[in-house]
Amino acid sequence: MALNATVAAANSLQETLYGGLDFSSLTWLEKQWVAWYIWIGNPIIATGLMSFLMHEIVYFGRCIPWIIIDAIPYFRQWKLQPNKIPTPAEQWECTKQVLFSHFTIELPAIWLFHPMAESFGMTTYQVPFPSWKTMVPQIFFFFFFEDLFHFLAHQALHKGVLYKHIHKLHHKYAAPFGLAAEYAHPAEVFILGTGTIAGPILYCYFTQNLHILTVYIWITLRLFQAIDAHSGYDFPWSLHNIVPFWSGAEHHDFHHMAFTNNFSTSFRWWDRIFGTDKKYLEYRARIKAAKIAMKNASKDKQEEMERRLMEEVEAEGQRAEAEVEREFSNKKTQ
Ligand SMILES: [Zn+2]
Ligand SMILES: [Zn+2]
Predict the structure, then answer these.
(1) Which ligand is the nearest neighbour of the Cα of 159?
(2) Are the CB atoms for 38 and 13 separated by under 8 Å?
(3) Same domain, 289 and 140
(4) How far, in Å, from the CA of 173 to the mean position of ligand 2?
(5) 0.70 cut: is pTM over it?
(6) Which residue stretches belong to region Disordered (predicted)?
(7) What is 101-125 written as a DSSP string?
(8) Which conformational region is residue 238 in: left (phi greater than 0), alpha (psi within -120 to 50 degrees), or beta?
């Protein structure tokens, strides 16, 4: 009897969501999509659950290779700050904080995103999926929008009260690692997360043409970008060595080490246009010049030189950070 009732409910849901649809024309993935929505039995729960699971699987799934790489000394030759390898205790501490913010801030935010985006015209349970030709330009727009938003909001987070009470937490690691990508104050997750989800919301408001699958692909790529940018490694095959305007770890690692410059996420152009990469470019030029000057010196001597330059930049960064905090407390006491 109970089984009959369940089957009847599933049939009526199928009729409501997918009535008149020719199932034989669907791809394998589209069939799984339909099966998920019918199995869960409630589109809001089905979408919310899938989104949260996707975020967790992609985030930690992408961090695992970096945890393994950190444990293998062979890879140190490509570590941007080779004398700073995260310890397992540090990584675990970071994981706990990240999980806490995933369940307290991101879970409700992810859950709320769908009804909100749906009310702006986004499709969720519907199949067939949009074509690649539709998805690719949309994803490019989201990358562009997020990068610009982040460039501006991140600079604001480096000032006074916003730094002291919010962004300082993310700067705990002067030599970041993959897991540290989302290690941030809940308010920062909310502020910078806006850059990730406002693009899709604005887009579907104006065009009424966006499927949540496109948003999933976008979020997956954005998570890859953020985790890789914090990985601390620059390989010869890293994307920025192939696409020169891509930021990557080589760009963002400097932001953590020097506390300044390189505020954008995916692309280098805004920092270049507004000159917020001046110190970074000078640092790279100094390393390059020193390497040429020392090309006949021993490997140890070269490494020693690089370490000294890094320490100088880091010390300068610590002074700049103290300055921001001092400005804030001066304002407070005035
Ligand atoms: Zn910062
Ligand atoms: Zn960072």
Answers:
(1) 1
(2) yes
(3) no
(4) 9
(5) yes
(6) 297-334
(7) HIIIIIHHHHHHHHHHHHHTT-B-S
(8) beta
pLDDT tens column, 101-151: 899 888 998 888 888 888 999 999 999 999 999 999 999 999 999 999 999
Which-ligand-closest: CA of 176? 2
Give me the DSSP letters along 152-168.
HHHHHTTSHHHHHHTGG
Query: 175 C-alpha vs ligand 2 centroid, how far in Å?
Result: 10
How distant is the alpha carbon of residue 17 from its chain centre? 33
Q: Which ligand is nearest to the CA of 177?
A: 2
Span from the CA of 129 to the centroid of ligand 2 (angstroms): 34
For residue 166, the CA-to-ligand 1 centroid distance in Å is 10
Please give the tally of structural domains in the chain: 2
> What's the one-letter identity of residue 183?
Y
* 61 CA to centre of ligand 1 in angstroms: 25
Among residues 178, 198, 233, the one where a domain terminates is 233
Ligand nearest to the CA of 324: 1
> Is 19 contained in some domain?
no
Q: Is the predicted pLDDT of residue 333 greater than 70, yes or no?
A: no
Ligand closest to CA 229: 2
Give CA 179 to chain center in angstroms. Answer: 10
At 250, phi and psi to the nearest 5? Answer: -60, -30
Asked whether residue 148 falls in the same domain as residue 228, the answer is: yes
Q: Tell me which ligand sits closest to the C-alpha of residue 158.
A: 1
* CA–centroid distance, residue 168 to ligand 1 (Å): 8
CA-nearest of 125, 162, 1 to 51 is 125
Residue 6 lies in a domain: no
List the domain range (segments joined by +) for residue 101: 29-73+88-233
- 65 lies in the same domain as 179: yes
